[in-house]
Design goal:
CATH superfamily of the largest domain: Thiolase/Chalcone synthase
CATH class of the largest domain: Alpha Beta
CATH topology of the largest domain: Peroxisomal Thiolase, Chain A, domain 1
Bound molecules: oxa(dethia)-CoA
Structural class: alpha/beta
């Protein structure tokens, strides 16, 4: 059974933190951040939570799809920064929007989260277990950042994006999907909920409850693994990279996106980006970009898209979707 995205929505907190603001906080510069990452500003949640941002994005996705909350069968929130562990953020969203008929749960696979939520929803819907799903990627990375560490604090932002997913006619929607994980490399990007006991050794170097990243290792992983995964889904769908109208990739670094465009031999005009304004929002980045494209009318009926996420775990995934 074919499955597609019927509506999208997003939410960005009001406060904007610019590179110039960061210059006043740590030893960095607007030029370094722009050249190395492509970012100029990011949104930071002050009065919002992961649950409230998810709820706003979810309501807009339902509106875009022309659905009522009572229609929703399944809610999946992809997040690694929810303020409350139990109950999960998806249950909070269910209560807030009044989706009384839905089952709700979270998944945590960092920056691949939204892609994995989409694949999970597609699997449930094609199995016949649920008719539809509201999937959300939402993060408040500002809550887990060490604001004195210039190597990480300039990179991340907050926000949420959502999509309503439903069955569709054959030959449309998701044409192929693939995903993978490499847990042995987990130590290159991690954060722990509370500070570790300094007396106890573990595989993670940092003892504090902040994001730690070996940026160069994650970079290398992304530019090798993501094009391979994209080539696999394209080949499974019987397509070539040149057949794709839009590559909607996780927005981690403009140089990663440029390297992937080069590897696939497809110009950057097929790689929409919003990293300049949002920074890296982890699981929110793909649905934020998707909603921007959808609402600005850039997605035409029948366009071929590749969605691809990658990050902590390490995890990665991609799918081909006919809009
Ligand atoms: O979403 C999850 C997945 N995450 C990613 O995909 C991130 C992947 N990695 C990256 O995007 C890049 O590796 C970074 C943007 C994190 C770093 O860029 P880089 O070109 O790999 O820089 P680097 O870490 O090799 O650092 C180069 C220099 C260093 O100085 P020295 O040792 O050459 O003197 C750093 O100390 O830049 C320095 N540096 C900074 N300078 C100014 C690191 N952070 C900053 C900063 N401002 N904010």
């Amino acid at each position: 059974m074919a499955v597609t995205i019927k509506g999208t929505g997003s939410f960005l907190p009001e406060k904007v933190l610019t590179n110039f603001d960061l210059e006043k906080m740590v030893d960095t510069s607007d030029a370094w951040i722009r050249e190395r990452t492509g970012m100029s500003e990011r949104h930071i949640a002050e009065n919002d939570t992961v649950a409230s941002m998810s709820t706003e994005a979810a309501k807009k996705a339902l509106e875009d799809a022309g659905k009522d909350a009572s229609d929703v069968d399944l809610i999946i929130v992809a997040t690694c920064t929810g303020e409350v562990m139990v109950p999960c953020t998806a249950c909070k969203v269910q209560a807030e929007i009044g989706a009384d008929n839905a089952v709700a749960f979270d998944i945590n696979s960092a920056c691949s989260g939204f892609l994995f939520a989409l694949q999970t929803a597609a699997a449930y819907i094609s199995s016949g277990m649920h008719r539809n799903a509201l999937i959300i990627g939402a993060e408040m990375l500002s809550s887990i950042i060490n604001w004195e560490d210039r190597s990480t604090c300039v990179l991340f932002g907050d926000g949420a994006g959502a999509a309503f997913v439903e069955k569709c006619e054959e030959g449309r929607g998701i044409l192929s999907m693939a995903h993978g994980s490499n847990g042995a490399k987990g130590g290159v990007l991690y954060f722990r909920k509370k500070e570790a006991d300094p007396a106890k050794e573990d595989e993670y170097e940092g003892k504090d409850a902040f994001v730690h990243m070996n940026g160069a290792e994650v970079y290398k992983f992304a530019v090798r693994q993501v094009p391979d995964c994209i080539e696999k889904v394209l080949s499974d769908a019987g397509l070539k990279a040149s057949d794709v109208d839009h590559f909607v990739l996780h927005q981690a670094n403009i140089r990663i996106i440029e390297a992937i465009s080069k590897r696939l031999g497809v110009g950057m005009d097929h790689f929409p980006v919003n990293i300049e304004k949002t920074g890296n929002t982890s699981s929110a980045s793909i649905p934020l970009l998707l909603d921007e494209l959808n609402k600005s009318g850039k997605l035409k009926d029948g366009d071929t898209m590749v969605l691809s996420g990658f990050g902590g775990g390490l995890t990665y995934g991609a799918c081909v979707l006919k809009w």
